[in-house]
Amino acid sequence: MIEALLLMMGLGAVAGTLLGIASKVFYVWEDPRIALVADCLAGANCGGCGYTGCGACAAAIVAGEADVGACIVGGAAAAAKVAAVLGLEAGAAEPLTSENTCTGGFRAPEKFSYMGVNDCRAAYLLYAGAKDCDVGCLGFGSCVKACVFDALKIGPDGYPVVDEEKCVGCGACEKACPKGIMQVRKPSDRILHMNLVTDRLAPCRQTCPAEVNIPKYINHIKRGEYDKAWLTVMERNPLPLSTGRVCPHPCEDACRRALADDPVSINQLKRFCSDWVMNHGTSLKIPVAPDTGYRVAIVGGGPSGLSAAFYLRRLGHKVKIFEWLPKLGGMIYYGIPQYRLPKEILYKDIDRILGLGGIEVKTGVKFGVDFDLESLVGGGFDAVLMTIGAMNHASARIPDEDKVKGVVPATVFLRRQGLGNPYPVGKKVAVIGGGNVAMDCLRSSVRLGADKVYCLYRREVKDMPANKVEIEACHHEGIEFVTLCTPTRFITDDEGNLTGIEYLKNELGEPDASGRRSPVPIKDSETVIPIDNFILAIGQTTNSAFADEEGTAVSRLETSRGSIVNDTDTHQTAIPYVFTSGDCAGPPGLLVAAVGAGRRAARGIHKYLMGEDMAFPPTRLRVDSRRMKGHIPGTIFDSIEGIQRKGRIEQPELEPGSYERQHTYAEVDLTVTEENALKEANRCMRCCLTCYNKDTS
Amino acid sequence: MGDYILLAVGAILVNNILLIQYLGNCPFLGTSKSMDNATGMAMAVVFVLALAGIVTWIMEAVFLKPLGLEYIRTIVFIVVIAALVQFVEIFMKKSMPALYAGLGIFLPLITTNCAVMGVCLINIKEEYNFLEMLVSSLAYPAGFGLALILFAGLRERIIIGRVPGPLQDVSIALVTAGFMSLSFLGFKGMI
Amino acid sequence: MRDIIRMIVVLGVMAACGGALLAGVKSGTAAKIEYQQLKFVKGPAIKNILEGCTNDPLVDRFKIKDGEIERSFYVGVFDGKANAVAYETFGKGFGGDIGVMVGVNVEADELLGIGVTTHAETPGLGSRAKDDPSFGAQFKGMSISKPIKVKPDGGEVDAVSGATITSKGVCQGVTDSAEFYTRLKPQIVEQAKAFAK
Amino acid sequence: MAKTIVQEFTKGLWDEIPPFRLVLGLCPVLAVTKTVANGVGMGVAATFVLVCSNILVSALRNIIPSQVRVPCFIIIIATFVVVVELVMQAVAYPLFLQLGIFIPLIVVNCIILGRAEAFASKNPPVASIADGLGIGVGFTIALGALAGIREAFGAGTISVPFSDTVIQLFGPSFQPFTFMVEAPGAFVCLGLVLAIMNLIGK
After folding, report:
1. Could you read off the pLDDT of C31-75 as tens digits, one per residue?
2. By Cβ atoms counted within 10 A, which residue in A300, A604, B113, C146 is the most buried?
3. What are the residues whose beta carbons fall under 8 Å from the beta carbon of D149, sequence distance 6 or more?
4. Number of domains in chain D
5. The domain A193-285+621-697: what is its CATH number?
6. What is the dihedral sign for C-alpha D81, D84, D89, D92?
7. Residue range C105-160, pLDDT digits in tens
8. Cα–Cα distance between A3 and C1 in angstroms, integer?
9. CB distance from B67 to chain C under 8 Å?
10. Are D85 and B74 in contact (CB under 8 A)?
């Protein structure tokens, strides 16, 4: 009796001493979450999970190798607790969610008839599966079987559908899929992802400079989920109200539907869903990653800077925007006239970005005058993004163009309009240039009271880089196009006021590098148009004079024709912590390109700050949306079959010739009705790389 | 010498601890999903059993038998094994991280592995002397490893096979184990 | 350091409580367990040897201290007289000790029979010494005072075929038991009387 | 989430019945289900240990330091296992001989340690009793059922637990399907029962 007692007591004491001392002497640090997760597990060390005991299982869960429901004994209750622990640590705002990236399913053609085991991994062993598409879903639902939360089903179209309510982001489906179709990602990961040639991308999505997931948001609209459509857009484009109004939508040029009838009116649909959210869904929450502790200064509050600020903030960095003008928006505030993009609408976009919190704004301060790189670094910023735009105008090489009264650069003309102090114009106005800026000047002049407005252009109307709809609108508003002309001389009165412009007529010669035939002036074809004002709108350059000052940090920046040279992928400049994007980093481009560049810059800065590899993977997809080149091979078709022809919806606009149209800044283009939006959304064939819905109405 | 070989063969094949004696089946099903885990587990069991066999045998010879305390053998053995395994784990984690990564992570699983406890009890029940105990403590886990690794090979194949819904996973694994057991039963005539 | 001490104390106290509880249960169940073991291990052999007795030999038992060892004797009552006892002895077999239950008529010093209780012999060969009733039956009526041997050794017992060593071991065990039986006989007779009816 | 005591009990009978739903504690399931008597005996022994250790673990859950939690649970469980061992020797010695090594091995049965860790160490004693009893009864039923199938096919009999009675199911011409009572039969039979359980669903 007493022996038993003593023996057991001795044994317990020895075991306790041994373990107690060992746990101190041989102490090894490990992730504290492992212990927290281990506490949630059953602790039986039974090995039922396939791991070697609860500790190993917890370590695997924390490392992301095992899913949160790995513990059989603990069951769903333990899984929920583990998910809570991990969620807490990973940041409550950064939930992992699963997404199916293939929309093929039954519609995707097959190479051969597969009669084997109903399992994706087994089917994959045979020539990578029967689907014609190399990256398409095989549809046997290995992911569905892998999901212990019942959050996945093979949907009616033959591909898996995620139930977002049930999905905990455990990652089991991603591991089960041999084709990498199921992607379990945090919102941050999705923001950082750039189009790859291995992705499942419709032609429109490949073409969009901002890489918006167009088929997905149109599909949301189709189902009446306008808020989800908007959130999808916001993953790539934080200025949807603005782009929805002014984007020249290169995506529509790639739309496969155009081969049957007309391209889907993608931009109008984007505008529709963003307007709907503006009017209805103001409480929608945009996820923001937990703070990283880094601060980024953005010099210039234009579209690229705003886009970068938005994504940097969503990635968890604090941002401060410095803007020299009183309002944010840059060229889209001061450049695009009210009738195309009302300022209050633009500010809805900007307010939404600032509404994330953690983005400070300082206006009325100019780089190189009020502050410089040294003061930013000294002020505790870890990286600087320069989005200073292109505010200098290009010369038209007409003598005395900067002396004659009544001659004004487009940037000044438009900015004064934006500041509420419009440039006074006479009865007759001429604008030189064929881009969208020229169109804005032309149409603004009409509204400022000019009776006769001329557009001077050295080539023909079809060669103009401006949006077709803009040119058409100019026609509607009575603007006269004087094409194939080269202005040579200003005609002035005695006081130096402009009274007319003399120009030479052109003929077209050999095609130049851009494929357009270059204009050659015809001798002795001088013609004079009487005008009161002349607006120069033939291009802009960046004012990077500050980089020439010796002895400053910023002088280490390299410039080329005024633009600040950067790595076009990472947007990093010669100074590692300085990045540039938007118009100041290259030839001025589209708003949507600036938005896309802003996100790329945000990615570059994020990778730089986090010490990760900044370079793009070699599989990066590079599409030239202007020349429509560089698409994934085999995704641009010559013809499509079986589509019932049905025209696109019209763009609703103010009645041409009406008082509002000619004399006020009321918005000209209007938002489509819900009925029309649904009609248009249903025209979308929800294309992917090669397959599409053939039965689309 | 012959006796020891006979004992070893008997322990590995004829009385295979997993398939004939039904011991250690939880990790058998748990760690056989992948070959890597199966190999690691097998090695860890050999290692721990050799240690546990020696320690428990000494406990029996030095304390339990002379004091007439055989009736608390169960509790003494399990406490000794649990403390031993935990100690080895802590020690290995710090001092031999490389070995720990390959072997050590399987250790906690072994505390509740009935194969370990079972062999220790068999050693006592069969009244093995020290050498016999050593042979048995190495041969039984060798049999465990053999069956586990063979089974893992089969199971990696079964995962992609066309298995009827209700039979999937553990169910088909058990049926497969049954047929493996049947083939091991064939060794019965050897000794 | 504090938590180490707490660990040691908790583990030690818990283990001690466990030990105490078990010791308690053990002492509470010891008698019962002994009876159960007798009933299922030695019981069949005893019943076989003392066939026809009017009492339960498993209950009517006594112990005699023989130096270091304590020996149990099971009393068989025939015709109201406690004239038979059974006791266990051990012989060396092929695979270790063989337990042999020996039944003796105290009045005549004659064997009533023997039965193997525990053994570690080869199944199917040596184990037949236990399972085959004809082997045990040969011993009936032999005198306890003379050495008992198998036929190859010049005795009268037919060895179990294929298990000569086992058979020899059993005979050796019985012969050896005669030594302490003779020595303890007075006490046996004395104690056995108490069970007479 | 809070379940009533009744729910804690009943979940062990179907939703989480070991070893079918919780695939744990397989060794005794395979080893002792040759006859119904053995199976049920094992189940009762395990239930006793489960309930007792659940009570004690639950009562002591705030005293035990977390680093030595598992060793403490093991001591508690082992103590009750030895109690069962002793009591079984005293009252059901043949069963003890039949179950042999598997009685001490209850101590390493994952179900018991698992319930101690997963449930009893986090819940008050009354709920823990219900949980232990539920899982234990479920385990017993499962063992009994499996043993019933194996014994009926393998030996043509059903042995009644806690008595010597053995019921002959078939006539004398019955050829026992010995495979079922051997080790392979145990694996196959459990696998098939598991499949049937999956088929029925929860």
Report:
1. 888 888 777 777 777 777 777 777 777 777 788 877 777 788 888
2. B113
3. D180, D189, D193
4. 1
5. 1.10.1060
6. negative
7. 877 788 888 888 777 666 556 667 777 777 777 777 777 777 777 877 777 778 77
8. 29
9. no
10. yes
Question: Is the separation of the CB atoms in A449 and A464 below 8 Å?
Answer: no
Q: What is the mean pLDDT of residues B64-81?
A: 85
D73 lies in which domain range?
Answer: 5-147
CA-to-CA distance for D192 and D189, rounded, in angstroms? 5
Nearest CA-CA distance, residue A43 and chain C, Å: 19
E-only strand ranges, C43-182 = 61-66, 69-78, 81-92, 97-105, 110-116
**A389: nearest Cα among A359, A421, A366:** A366
Domain locations along chain A:
23-90, 99-185, 193-285+621-697, 295-391+555-610, 393-541
Task: Rounding to the nearest 10 degrees, give the CA dihedral for residues A678, A682, A683, A684.
Answer: 110
Q: How many other CB atoms sit within 10 Å of the CB of residue A202? A: 26
Are A85 and A62 a contacting pair, CB within 8 Å? no
Architecture of domain A99-185: 2-Layer Sandwich (3.30)
Phi, psi of B168, rounded to the nearest 5 degrees: -65, 160
Distance CA C64, CA C70 (A): 6
| ipTM value > 0.90 | no
Question: Is a pLDDT exceeding 80 seen at residue A247?
Answer: yes
CB contact under 8 A, B171 and D109: no
Domains A23-90 and A193-285+621-697 share a fold: no
Mutation target to probe the A interface, by most A beta carbons within 10 A, among B23, B87, B92, B167 is B87
Token pair of A66 as six digits: 């095992």
Q: Judge: D91–C26 Cβ closer than 8 Å, yes or no.
A: no
Question: Which residues numbered 289-348 in A keep a CB inside 8 Å of some CB on B?
Answer: none
Give me B161's structure tokens: 């096979």
Considering only CB atoms, C7 lies closest to which of A5, A10, A16, namely A16
C-alpha span between C17 and C23 (Å, rounded): 10
pTM above 0.80, yes or no: no
Residue D185 placed within a domain? no
Q: Residue A593 to residues A192, A589, B181: CA-CA distances in angstroms?
A: 17, 6, 67
In this structure, which topology does domain A295-391+555-610 adopt according to CATH? Answer: FAD/NAD(P)-binding domain (3.50.50)
Q: Kindly report the nearest CA distance between residue A57 and chain D, in angstroms.
A: 15
Q: How far is C30 from chain A (nearest CA, A)?
A: 12
> Which 3 state secondary structure label does DSSP give A385?
strand
